[in-house]
């Protein structure tokens, strides 16, 4: 059951050997580059590379299926909302109008709008896999030390570390409660109607949130009793110095950023226009 949780998964391989700081820098730089450009070639390349990294990290579909489906739903919803608000935005961007579907009134579909919406959806599947990879291959303590290593105050870094540690615990507790409820006869699987499943899960989530807040208060009190935050600096047990692989990872991220800037100049803007 724990294989379905989003959180750090111990493993071997190139990604697990990298420093958390280098992975964090790579994730930030590449995400910014992919979110600012609409060059389909670069976005597709980064997306396919992310899938290859999943294979290298031995992360199975079952471990990330829920997150991917969740993101796919919101990506589809975002694409739909963009189309409903401005169905002619694509032709405005690319300066060409190729009608594929006449539609009704102001709602029609062009090749340009479809291409723009395709690029918009690609951005989700370009950056989200990188975020999932980072979370699942970086130990929370190493992530905290990495944040502190790049200049984030250690109090903030430690808070992030506790959050990442706590997410799998909350997921495990939720699934345990849900299994207990199902054993008592409360149907929460896909066999039940959607609204009843939502109502049943809310009956679990709301008490779980309050119990989680109580646990957080206990942890913060314990940290205060141990005088956490007294000193301006602290050492980290999981601190790792940069290796050649870390430096190459950061250099690759910088190269991707420069490629994005070059594409801005080459395309005369953020958008790649195949109709020119």
TrEMBL record:
An annotated GO cellular component: plasma membrane
Residues that span the membrane, as ranges: 24-54, 66-85, 114-136, 242-264
Name of one Pfam family that matches: CbiQ
UniProt main location, coarse: membrane
Keywords: Membrane, Transmembrane, Transmembrane helix
Topology of the protein relative to the lipid bilayer: Multi-pass membrane protein
InterPro entries: ABC/ECF_trnsptr_transmembrane
Compartments where located: Membrane
Family annotation (PANTHER family): ABC TRANSPORTER PERMEASE (PTHR33514:SF1), PROTEIN ABCI12, CHLOROPLASTIC (PTHR33514)
Protein name in UniProt: Energy-coupling factor transporter transmembrane protein EcfT
Native source organism of the sequence: Streptococcus vicugnae
């Amino acid at each position: 059951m724990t294989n379905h949780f989003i959180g750090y998964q111990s493993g071997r391989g190139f990604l697990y050997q990298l420093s958390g700081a280098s992975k964090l820098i790579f994730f930030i730089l590449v995400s910014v580059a992919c979110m600012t450009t609409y060059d389909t070639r670069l976005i597709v390349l980064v997306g396919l590379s992310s899938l290859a990294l999943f294979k290298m990290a031995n992360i199975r579909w079952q471990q990330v299926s829920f997150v991917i489906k969740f993101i796919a739903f919101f990506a589809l919803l975002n694409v739909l909302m963009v189309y409903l608000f401005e169905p002619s935005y694509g032709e405005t961007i690319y300066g060409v109008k190729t009608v594929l579907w006449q539609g009704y009134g102001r709602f029609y579909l062009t090749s340009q709008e479809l291409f723009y919406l395709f690029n918009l959806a690609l951005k989700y599947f370009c950056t989200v896999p990188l975020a999932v990879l980072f979370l699942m291959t970086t130990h929370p303590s190493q992530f905290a030390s990495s944040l502190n290593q790049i200049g984030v105050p250690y109090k903030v870094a430690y808070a992030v570390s506790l959050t990442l540690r706590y997410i799998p615990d909350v997921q495990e507790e939720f699934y345990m409660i849900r299994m207990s409820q199902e054993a008592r006869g409360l149907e929460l699987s896909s066999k039940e109607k959607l609204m009843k499943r939502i109502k049943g899960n809310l009956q679990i989530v709301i008490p779980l949130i309050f119990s989680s807040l109580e646990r957080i208060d206990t942890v913060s009190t314990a940290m205060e009793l141990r005088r956490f935050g007294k000193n301006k600096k602290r050492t980290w047990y999981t601190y790792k110095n940069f290796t050649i692989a870390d430096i190459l990872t950061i250099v690759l991220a910088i190269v991707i950023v420069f490629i994005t800037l070059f594409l801005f100049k080459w395309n005369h803007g953020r958008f790649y226009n195949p109709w020119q």
